[in-house]
Specification:
The protein has about 130 residues and is an alpha+beta fold. The protein contains three helices and seven strands. Helix content is about 25%, strand content about 25%.
Length: about 130
């Protein structure tokens, strides 16, 4: 058998394999995503706020039991002076008419702002900040 004939057969075989793999269900496709381990999904048990620079892991009892109010820049500083980021985690009750208290608030300050706040403390109380902020 000539070299040209062998290359022709090999080329045809390769083309057939490529054609078969282009069909749905080929082994080269990514496997379907696996279900999370355990009895509950865990996607809401990790809160990652990369811009603010923190990640928070919640206990399983918090699954689907909280809402997040994340604010940054002037919007955060309007309620929490000098804060560059403010993230509040609010309880989400089973019954809609129940109270929704804030469970946890994380405030992130730039070092210069933290030092400005820390420098205002005197004798167990805080002095007023510039601009009348307390």
């Amino acid at each position: 058998m000539s070299l040209r004939r062998r290359l022709s057969i090999a080329g045809s075989a390769l083309a057939s394999v490529l054609l078969l793999c282009a069909l749905p269900g080929c082994a080269s496709e990514a496997p379907p995503p696996q279900q999370p381990l355990g009895s509950i999904p865990t996607d809401d048990l990790i809160y990652d706020h990369r811009t603010a620079g923190f990640t928070l892991a919640f206990p399983p009892s918090w699954h689907d039991r909280y809402d997040v109010d994340a604010r940054s820049g002037p919007i955060a500083a309007a309620q929490w002076p000098y804060a560059s980021h403010a993230v509040a985690f609010t309880y989400k009750p089973v019954e809609p008419d129940q109270p929704q208290p804030v469970l946890l608030t994380i405030l992130v300050y730039r070092r210069v702002n933290w030092n400005a706040i820390a420098g205002r403390r005197c004798g167990g109380r805080f002095e007023p900040l510039p601009g009348g902020l307390a």
